[in-house]
Amino acid sequence: MADPIGEKIVITVLSADRPGIVAGVTRVLADLNVNILELSQTVLDGVFSMIAIADISTSGYDFKKIKHDLEAEGVKLNINLLIQRKEIFDRMHRV
Amino acid sequence: MVTSDEILETIKMVKVEQLDIRTVTLGINLLDCAKNDVGHTCERITDKLIDKAGDFVEIVNSVQEDFGIPIVNKRIAVTPISLIINALGMPSKKAAVKIATTLDEAAEDLGINFIGGYTALVHRAASLGDNMLIESIPEAMEATERLCSSVVVASTRDGINMDEILRMGRIIKKTSEVSDTGCARLVVLANAPEDIPFMPGAYHGIGNSDASINVGISGPGVVRAAVEKTDGNFMELCDTIKRVSFKIVRAGELIGEEVAKRMKVDFGSIDLSLAPTPAVGDSVAKIIEDMGIEHCGGPGSTCALALLTDAVKKGGIMASSRIGGYSGAFIPVSEDRGMIEVAKAGHINIEKLEAMTSVCSVGLDMVPIPGDTPAEIIAGIIADQMAIGVYNNKTVGARLVPIKGKKEGDYVHFGGLLGEGSVMPVKKIDCSKFVKRGGRIPASVTSFRN
């Protein structure tokens, strides 16, 4: 099915800091052929946060499958991981 | 490009401050279902609801997954059923109840928690169908769990139908005697818009297309978090509320657009009303207290609610051109954690609530009152509420809930979103001569605008 509402997603990770989080998440994206457009991560007071904006149009998979695989990885890594379509942020924060 | 801070702000709104979309409501026209025979009519109603709403819940859930914003309720509003009853060959109370149970069963099958539109429009006078529907309300509410009913008894253009207000006093009392949640699913309205997404006032007005989506946003928790952080003066306070309102209305707009697109129906409007829940933090009363008033209901509360409602509207109107429905703030006594507390402590009474309704929307909402309150006094309270709406050109509703066998100060649990609370004292001052004068109070001078 053609994606009806844009192709960009935002992946947000919040977790205690430890090695392998970025590697784990980006490995899933690479396996699904999802292209990362922006990636930032910070550690503040031991809290790790990572935000990735990615384009899913290059992937042969739909949003549902990508969300499913990323959430499974989130469970494996024991991190808080959210996947949302980017439009919600654009709409809420831009006039 | 959105910044990391903006992304994290949105996530915090959802995860910590309880931002959600309170309801996505699908309005469905049932006029084409009305046939001579009530059995045939009910079959057609069921078929149409399944045809139009068969995949509604699934689609709303998929939109929720895509955007990561919780959508709490999926609801349906239908054409005022009094119009369907009017079209029957033999309109009767029994036929009305049969339609009521048909709607309730369809809602259950579709996974819908409330279905609205068991509605009569009697702001000028009652037709035969209106009479049958209104008289059937106690029995219809007793026989259903999901059905919501509304009766429009007044409008600025038409005046106040006092005969119907008196009748509703009796109907509310009778309903309270046969159904525990019946009165919580029943509202008396003035100046009712045709695009309300919130229950129990939602109905699919005849000015709408065959099916349309209306969205009710939420957000008391988000507004409260912003107000809590603001020590500034009133200009700064209002500006803070406006900014938050803009964001939550935008979220509602995107979700409404997307659901309507996937359902292939019209997108009607967004109701920006702040709708509290019994959840801790999701309270309009607490916003008022955070502005600097010790207890909601104390001096300053009406003013605080007025500035809150006004700032929410300003931010919302900037955010979307589809603002409709009630679009104010709700102050339901049993559904708002802060309100439950101040009512229990006696800091707020019906008279102060009534004053506050002059600057918000909906009105006396989910107010538990003693079960032995006479119908004439219930009618008197409704009349006061309707007057506030009619003479100030605004929508108001009264959802009074007499609690069978309970007296003032007793505690009652409705369960779920309907909440809990103390039975409020009602002044036992006789107004029966007034409410029984009969007829309609003429249209207000404020209606003559042509």
Any key phrases for this structure?
heterodimer; A: 95 residues; alpha+beta; Alpha-Beta Plaits; 4-stranded antiparallel β-sheet; 3 helices; 35% helix; B: 450 residues; alpha/beta; Anaerobic Ribonucleotide-triphosphate Reductase Large Chain; 11-stranded mixed β-sheet; two-stranded antiparallel ribbon; 15 helices; 13 strands; UPF0210 protein AMQ22_00559 (chain B); UPF0210 (chain B); ACT_dom (chain A)
Overview of this structure, please?
In chain A, 35% of the residues lie in helices and 36% in strands. Chain A has three helices and four strands. Chain A has helices at 21-31, 63-77, 87-93; strands at 8-16, 35-44, 47-55, 80-85. The radius of gyration of chain A is 13 Å and the shape is globular. The model of chain A has no long low-confidence stretch (mean pLDDT 92). Chain B contains 15 helices and 13 strands. In chain B, 61% of the residues are buried. The model of chain B has no long low-confidence stretch (mean pLDDT 96). The A-B interface holds A 4-5, 10, 12, 14, 38, 40, 42, 49, 51, 53, 63-64, 67, 82-95 and B 1-2, 4, 6-11, 65-69, 247-248, 250-251, 253-254, 258, 261-262, 318.
User: Strand-and-helix sequence of chain B, N→C?
Assistant: HEHHEHHEHEEHEEHHEHHHHEHEEEHE
Strand content of chain A: 35-45%
Give the N-to-C terminal Cα separation of chain A. 31 Å
Mean pLDDT of chain B: 96
Task: Give me the secondary-structure category of chain B.
Answer: alpha/beta
CATH fold assignment of chain A? Alpha-Beta Plaits
What are the low-pLDDT stretches of chain B, counting only 5+ consecutive residues below 50? none
Poorly predicted spans of chain A: none
Topology:
The complex is a heterodimer of chains A (about 100) and B (about 450).
Chain A: E1 8-16, H1 21-31, E2 35-44, E3 47-55, H2 63-77, E4 80-85, H3 87-93
Antiparallel strand pairs in A: 1-3, 1-4, 2-3
Chain B: H1 4-15, E1 21-28, H2 38-53, H3 56-67, E2 71-78, H4 81-87, H5 93-110, E3 114-121, H6 128-142, E4 147-155, E5 159-161, H7 162-178, E6 186-190, E7 211-217, H8 220-228, H9 234-263, E8 266-271, H10 284-290, H11 301-319, H12 337-345, H13 350-357, E9 365-370, H14 375-391, E10 396-403, E11 411-413, E12 420-422, H15 432-435, E13 440-441
Protein name (chain A): UPF0237 protein AMQ22_00558
Family (chain A): Belongs to the UPF0237 family.
InterPro entries (chain A): ACT-like_dom_sf (IPR045865), ACT_dom (IPR002912), UPF0237/GcvR_regulator (IPR050990), UPF0237_ACT (IPR022986)
